[in-house]
Each structure stands twice: as structure tokens, then as C-alpha cells.
Write a structure and sequence with these properties.
Domain DALR anticodon binding: 134-283
GO biological process, one term: arginyl-tRNA aminoacylation
GO molecular function: arginine-tRNA ligase activity; ATP binding
Shape: globular
Strand content: 5-15%
Pfam families: DALR_1 (PF05746)
CATH class of the largest domain: Mainly Alpha
Number of domains: 2
Order of helices and strands: HHEEHHEEHHEEHHHH
Number of strands: 6
Largest sheet: 4 strands, antiparallel
Protein name: DALR anticodon binding domain-containing protein
Distance between the termini: 42 Å
């Protein structure tokens, strides 16, 4: 990873954040090129796996287990409190996002504009009928946020914008109550976890556009937006915000609206900047 981009990337994606920590942990001993880092497919957890110790074993002339233990010891304070670090069999380093850490990243995603790369490759032209479900999801996000503002579940700082905002700034609650009094994430429904997983997957797949060396690596923007749109529709059909939830669990309703904020932000980012399409307020 290019060191010139670490300060920017570390605030954009989890993958950038972890790669920068790995680079600091490895120090001046060399990385043999790219650092292997992949996310587990388990949507119930946000778990990253790295086989960097296996890659370094020959150069460092140590066993993968020994190298992994050394790196994990160095990584732990660098990643705290966002990630818990441990060594799995065969020298694989596991980094699992904690609930408080996930809350921080969700808050950032819901309330911070993604930086637009200076140079970018637009997606091939996508037909209007294929774009429509994605645009519909964006419009539905906007509609739900306006309804929640009117019902005083949340307070949007500037709700009467003429066009769809990239980020709707929340006046309240701020921060969004992602976690409960026991520091556990409120969002535990499978559809919530699936949407969270897809949000992070989109960010990880957008990672090359924020990293100088990989900026020409192709990214299937339509596929990313389509998958996020589908995850949102499932979430919306299974996770209530109004009715009993609004009355008895208002903070859960606000956390679910936080997911909608994050989804709206990412859908608009991809639609307008990479699919050359409108992100409508309503349809």
C-alpha cells in the first residue's frame, strides 16, 4: 500500500485501516509486496483474515506461528479498541471488529462524505430498467428519512433541500445510538447484520479507487450497488421502524434509521459518481 495514501485511506474503509496497521507492525523489515487480507463470508461477524505470516516466513526465517504471534502482539494496541486480534492455527492472523468499533465505523459512514478520487473510471452504460431498482432503493431511503424527521424520531439539520443530499446531517440523535448500555450492538436481526455486511463489502470493494497503486483495478460498480439495494430491500421488509418499535424501542428505531442513512449515502455515491445516473429523492 502506498504510504502517501494511508492517512486518507485509514478513514475511508476498514481494509485501508487494517492495511495501514499491518504496515506499521511490519516496520522496516519489508512486506514482499501486497499484504494478503480478506474478509470472512460470515455476515454475523466482521472478521478479517491475513496469511501475511506465511508469506514472510521464508524471508524472516521463522515459523509462520512465531511471526504471527509477533505481529499480533504489535497489532493489538494499534487496532484497539476497534479490532480484537488473535492468532489462529497455521499462523493466520484474525482481526474481528468489536461492537464499539463497528458503531464508530457505522457512524462515520452514515455522517461523513466519502472522498471522491481525482481520477476515476466510469462503469459501462447500464440500461435504465436495470438501474431502476437501485434508484428506487435510494428514493425509498430518502422518503423514510423524511418521514422519520416529520415524526420526530430523528432530527435532520437541513431537511428541506432541493436535491438529494449526499449526507443528511443529523442534529439528533448525535451520535446515533448504535450500541446499548452494555456496549453491545443493538442491530442483531439477520437482515440488519446482512445489510451491515453488505455496506462494509461495498466499502472494501471500493478500496482500490482510494489507493494509488490500484486505482486502475476494475470495480463492478453496478454489481455493488445492486447487491446493496437488494440487502436494503430485505432489511426494510423485515425490520420495523414505526409502530411498536418506535414506541417501545425508540433507540433501535434510530439505529435502523442510521443504517438507512449509510445506505442512502453509498447508493448516491455510486449512482452519481460511477454509474452516471440520477439518485432521485422520490419516484
Amino acid at each position: 500500500m502506498d504510504t502517501a495514501n494511508i492517512s486518507q485511506c485509514s478513514e475511508v474503509t476498514l481494509k485501508c485501516f487494517l492495511l495501514s496497521r499491518f504496515q506499521r507492525a511490519i516496520g522496516q523489515q519489508g512486506t514482499l509486496g501486497e499484504i494478503p487480507l480478506n474478509r470472512s463470508k460470515d455476515s454475523a461477524r466482521v472478521l478479517y483474515l491475513s496469511a501475511i505470516a506465511l508469506k514472510l516466513a521464508k524471508t524472516w526465517q521463522q515459523t509462520p506461528q512465531t511471526i504471527a504471534a509477533q505481529l499480533a502482539e504489535t497489532l493489538e494496541p494499534l487496532c484497539y479498541p476497534d479490532f480484537a486480534v488473535k492468532v489462529a492455527p497455521a499462523g493466520i492472523i484474525e482481526l474481528e471488529l468489536t461492537d464499539p468499533g463497528l458503531a464508530v465505523w457505522l457512524q462515520r459512514l452514515a455522517q461523513t462524505n466519502l472522498p471522491l478520487p481525482e481520477s476515476r473510471i466510469l462503469s459501462p452504460v447500464v440500461s435504465a430498467d436495470r438501474l431502476f431498482p437501485i434508484q428506487y432503493s435510494h428514493a425509498r431511503c430518502c422518503s423514510l428519512l423524511r418521514m422519520a424527521h416529520r415524526d420526530r424520531i430523528i432530527s435532520i439539520a437541513q431537511p428541506d433541500v432541493a436535491t438529494a443530499p449526499q449526507i443528511w446531517s443529523l442534529a439528533a440523535p448525535n451520535p446515533i445510538p448504535w450500541i446499548d448500555d452494555g456496549d453491545r450492538l443493538r442491530l442483531v436481526h439477520p437482515a440488519e447484520r446482512s445489510l451491515i455486511s453488505q455496506l462494509l463489502t461495498v466499502l472494501d470493494n471500493l478500496y482500490p479507487i482510494f489507493e494509488v497503486k490500484n486505482r486502475e483495478k476494475p470495480v463492478n460498480y453496478f454489481k455493488l450497488a445492486k447487491s446493496l439495494s437488494e440487502a436494503f430491500q430485505i432489511f426494510y421488509s423485515q425490520c420495523q421502524i414505526w409502530g411498536e418499535v418506535k414506541i417501545e424501542q425508540p433507540q433501535l428505531a434510530q439505529a435502523r434509521l442510521g443504517l438507512i442513512l449509510a445506505t442512502q449515502s453509498l447508493l448516491r455515491f455510486i449512482l452519481e459518481n460511477f454509474l452516471n445516473a440520477i439518485a432521485p429523492l422520490e419516484l
